[in-house]
Design a protein that fits this description.
heterotrimer, A mainly alpha (215), B alpha/beta (324), C mainly alpha (127), A: 215 residues, globular, B: 324 residues, alpha/beta, Rossmann fold, six-stranded mixed sheet, four-stranded antiparallel sheet, elongated
Chain lengths: 215, 324, 127
C-alpha cells in the first residue's frame, strides 16, 4: 500500500504544475448545468471532460522521457500502475463530489428544485460513466503511449454523445426499468459492483502490459 | 561484497541487432567506462542492467543482488543519470525532491539542499530553465542525496560543454574517493573521461571486445606510422587496423606483436634488396646490416582509447583485435 | 611535493608519477617517513584513475622507495635506504657503460673520457 501511495504521489506531482487547467476542467461544466438546467446532464458532461484528462500524466511523462526515471526508481512496475489507478480514481471521486455540490448550488440559485434522489442518481451515473471512460483508456495508454494511443481519448466524448442521445429516449415506463428503479439501493449496488469489477480487470490488464513493456 | 556490479553472459537479440555474452565486473570503489561506437550496445547493456529491457540470457548482480529477483532492493542502492533530463520539466528543483525523495528511505534533505547550493542550482528554478549541465547536476544531486552506492551514467558527456564535462569529472572523482562508491558510465567521447576511468569495457557491434584495467587496455596497443613502401602482405596480416595515405600509413598493432613485426619487416627488406636494387653491388645480408630495418624508422606511439576504438571498428580487423 | 601530469608527453601517467616522486625523494624534498598523498585523494585531485596511482605506488614500493603500511598509507623510505643507494649505483654504472661504449665507437681515448666526466661532475655540482 505504501508503495502505491508513493507512486500515486509521484503521478500527482506530474499534475500539480497544471492545477489551474484541472480546476478549470472541474469547474467549467457548471455553466453547462446552468444552461441545460439538469444535474445529470451536467455531471455527464463533467465526467466526459475529466475522462479526457486521464491521458495527462501519460503525456507529461512521455514528453519528459520519464520512463527512464521510472526505470531507475526502486519501485515495482505494478505499484506504479496501482498508484496511477489510485490517483485517477481519487481525482474522479473528488471532482464528482465537488461538482455535485457546485452544480446543485448553481441550480438552486437559478430557482430549480433539486431532489435528493436526483443527486444520488447523478452520483452513481457520474461514477459509472467515469469508470467506463477510464478503464479502457488507461490500458491503451500503457500499451501505446499517450501520443500513439490518442484515439482512445474519444471514448469519453463518444460516451458523452451516447448519453446525450440515449438518456431522453429511456422509456421510463418499461417494466424492467420500473423493477430496477423500485429497488434503487440494489441498482446502485449493482452499478458500483460493475464499476469495481471493471477497475479490477483494467488494472490486471494494465499490470500485464506494463510488466512486458520495454523502454 | 567487493564487486558492485557483476554482469555475466548478458544477451539480448533484436531484429537486426544482437547483444551477446557481455560479461564484466566492477569492483567497489572504482570507475568503469563502457565504451564503443554508437549503436554498439552500450545503452542496451545499461537498460538490461536496469531491467528496463528483458534479457534473453545471462545474469546481472548489483551489490550481490539479482537485478530482477531483488530489483527494488538493488535499485535503492543505485542511481542512474541519462544523457538528458528525465524529470518533469515543469518541476522546480525543490519539487523534484518532493516527487522523488519518498522512494528512498535514507534520503537526506539537508544534503540535497547543500548539493544544490554547491552546484549553484536555484531550488525555485524550473527544470526546463536549467542548462543541460545543470540538469545533469540535479540528477547527480538526487543520486548523492540517498548516497547511492553505484552510479550508472549513460552518455553523460554527450551534450555537455568542456566546462561541464570537467565539472562532472571532478564530481565523479570526489564521489569514489572514499572507496565505497563506484561508477559505471557509457560514452563514445573517451577523451576527458579516459584519464579518470580505472576499468574499461569495450563493446563493439554487440560483442565484448575487452574488459579489464584501462592501463592494461591502452598498454596492449601501439600506433605505428611508416612510409608507404614498408607495407607488405605479411606485415599487413599482423596489423589490427590500418589507414593508408599516399605518403605513408598508420596502423594499430598489439604491443607484443611489435617484435614479430620487426622480423617480418627485416625479411621484407631483405627480399627487396635481393630482388633488385641494381645500383647496389653489396650482397643482400650486408645491406640488411647497414640499413636500419624499416621498423626502426617507423614511429611507434602509445595509442589513445579513441584510436583503439576507431581502428578496431574497421571491418576486416574487428575479430583480430578481440581479447580472448 | 609538486606533481605535474602531462597528457601529451607519451609517457604513461603512472610512470610520470613514479619519476616525480623518485626525484622528490632523491632531491631530499620528501624526507624519510614522510607520507605520500593518499592514493584516492591524489587520484581525485589529478582526476586520474585510482588504479593508475595504485600502480605507481606499488612499483615505487617494489623499487624500495616507499613502504606501504596497510590502512595508513605510503611512507618514504629515506634516501639513506641501502636499496635506493644500490639502485643509484647501478644506474650510474649503466650510464657509464653506455658512455664508454659511445666513446669507443667514436674512438675517444680513455683520458679524454675521464676529463669529460670531471667537467660534467663540476658542472653538475655547481648547477
Amino acid at each position: 500500500m505504501n508503495e502505491t501511495l508513493k507512486a500515486a504521489r509521484l503521478d500527482y506531482s506530474l499534475l500539480r504544475p497544471y492545477w489551474k487547467t484541472l480546476c478549470f476542467i472541474i469547474l467549467m461544466p457548471v455553466i453547462y448545468t446552468g444552461v441545460a438546467r439538469s444535474l445529470s446532464a451536467g455531471i455527464s458532461f463533467e465526467m466526459c471532460m475529466l475522462g479526457v484528462t486521464a491521458s495527462y500524466t501519460f503525456a507529461i511523462s512521455e514528453k519528459n522521457g520519464m520512463e527512464r526515471l521510472y526505470g531507475a526508481l526502486p519501485v515495482a512496475r505494478r505499484h506504479l500502475v496501482f498508484g496511477k489507478y489510485l490517483l485517477i480514481c481519487t481525482t474522479g471521486l473528488l471532482a464528482l463530489g465537488i461538482s455535485l455540490v457546485t452544480h446543485t448550488a448553481v441550480l438552486k440559485a437559478l430557482g430549480e428544485t433539486v431532489h435528493a434522489w436526483e443527486i444520488a442518481v447523478s452520483a452513481v451515473l457520474g461514477f459509472f460513466l467515469y469508470t467506463f471512460y477510464v478503464v479502457f483508456q488507461l490500458p491503451a495508454y500503457y500499451k501505446f503511449g499517450a501520443v500513439n494511443g490518442k484515439m482512445v481519448q474519444f471514448i469519453p466524448v463518444t460516451g458523452y454523445l451516447l448519453t446525450l442521445i440515449l438518456l431522453p429516449r429511456v422509456d421510463l415506463n418499461s417494466s424492467a426499468l420500473a423493477a430496477a428503479l423500485g429497488r434503487p439501493g440494489m441498482l446502485a449496488g449493482a452499478v458500483l459492483l460493475c464499476c469495481a469489477a471493471a477497475y479490477v480487470i483494467s488494472i490486471v490488464v494494465s499490470v500485464r502490459i506494463m510488466k512486458n513493456k520495454e523502454v | 561484497m567487493d564487486n558492485v556490479l557483476e554482469v555475466r553472459k548478458l544477451s539480448r537479440s533484436f531484429p537486426g541487432f544482437q547483444l551477446k555474452d557481455i560479461s564484466f565486473t566492477l569492483p567497489k570503489g572504482y570507475i568503469m567506462g563502457l565504451i564503443g561506437p554508437n549503436g554498439s550496445g552500450k545503452t542496451t547493456t545499461i537498460k538490461l542492467i536496469l531491467n528496463m529491457l528483458k534479457r534473453d540470457g545471462g545474469e546481472v548482480r548489483i551489490l550481490g543482488m539479482d537485478n530482477i529477483a531483488e530489483e527494488k532492493a538493488a535499485k535503492a542502492e543505485l542511481a542512474v543519470v541519462f544523457d538528458s533530463n528525465y524529470f518533469c520539466e515543469a518541476w522546480t528543483a525543490a519539487q523534484t525532491e518532493t516527487a522523488v525523495s519518498g522512494f528512498y528511505e535514507n534520503w537526506d534533505t539537508n544534503r540535497f539542499h547543500r548539493l544544490l547550493e554547491q552546484f549553484h542550482i536555484d531550488p525555485t528554478k524550473k527544470v526546463k530553465d536549467l542548462s543541460r549541465g545543470m540538469q545533469m547536476k540535479l540528477m547527480l544531486a538526487c543520486a548523492f542525496s540517498y548516497s547511492a552506492k553505484l552510479l550508472i551514467l549513460d552518455e553523460p558527456t554527450s551534450g555537455l560543454d568542456p566546462v561541464s564535462r570537467d565539472e562532472l569529472l571532478t564530481i565523479l572523482s570526489g564521489y569514489i574517493e572514499d572507496g565505497e562508491h563506484s561508477v559505471l558510465f557509457s560514452t563514445h567521447i573517451t577523451g576527458d573521461l579516459e584519464r579518470a576511468a580505472d576499468y574499461i569495457t569495450y563493446i563493439n557491434r554487440g560483442s565484448l571486445f575487452f574488459t579489464g584495467g584501462k592501463d592494461e587496455f591502452v598498454d596492449s596497443f601501439r600506433i605505428v606510422k611508416g612510409g608507404p613502401e614498408d607495407l607488405t602482405e605479411e606485415i599487413k596480416a599482423r596489423l589490427i587496423g590500418l589507414r593508408t595515405h599516399p605518403t605513408g600509413f598508420e596502423a594499430l598493432v598489439r604491443t607484443e606483436e611489435l617484435e614479430r613485426l620487426k622480423h617480418a619487416s627485416v625479411k621484407a627488406d631483405k627480399n627487396r634488396s635481393v630482388q633488385g636494387n641494381g645500383d647496389s653491388a653489396l650482397p643482400a645480408y650486408t645491406s640488411v646490416l647497414k640499413k636500419p630495418s624499416p621498423v626502426d624508422s617507423w614511429t611507434v606511439e602509445p595509442a589513445t582509447i579513441d584510436e583503439i576504438v576507431v581502428f578496431t571498428s574497421q571491418e576486416p580487423y574487428r575479430e583480430k583485435g578481440r581479447i580472448r | 611535493m609538486k606533481l605535474i601530469i602531462s597528457n601529451v608527453s607519451g609517457v604513461p601517467i603512472y610512470e610520470q608519477i613514479k619519476q616525480q616522486v623518485k626525484s622528490a625523494i632523491l632531491s631530499g624534498e620528501l624526507q624519510e617517513d614522510e607520507p605520500l598523498p593518499s592514493l584516492r585523494t591524489l587520484a581525485r585531485d589529478l582526476k586520474i584513475s585510482v588504479l593508475t596511482v595504485t600502480r605507481a605506488y606499488t612499483e615505487l614500493e617494489q623499487e624500495g622507495f616507499v613502504r606501504n603500511i596497510q590502512g595508513r598509507g605510503c611512507f618514504v623510505m629515506g634516501r639513506g635506504s641501502e636499496l635506493i643507494r644500490e639502485r643509484l649505483i647501478c644506474k650510474a654504472e649503466e650510464g657509464l657503460t653506455e658512455a664508454v661504449r659511445a666513446a669507443r665507437m667514436a674512438e675517444l681515448p680513455a683520458q679524454e673520457l675521464h676529463r669529460l666526466l670531471d667537467i660534467l661532475w663540476e658542472e653538475n655540482e655547481n648547477g
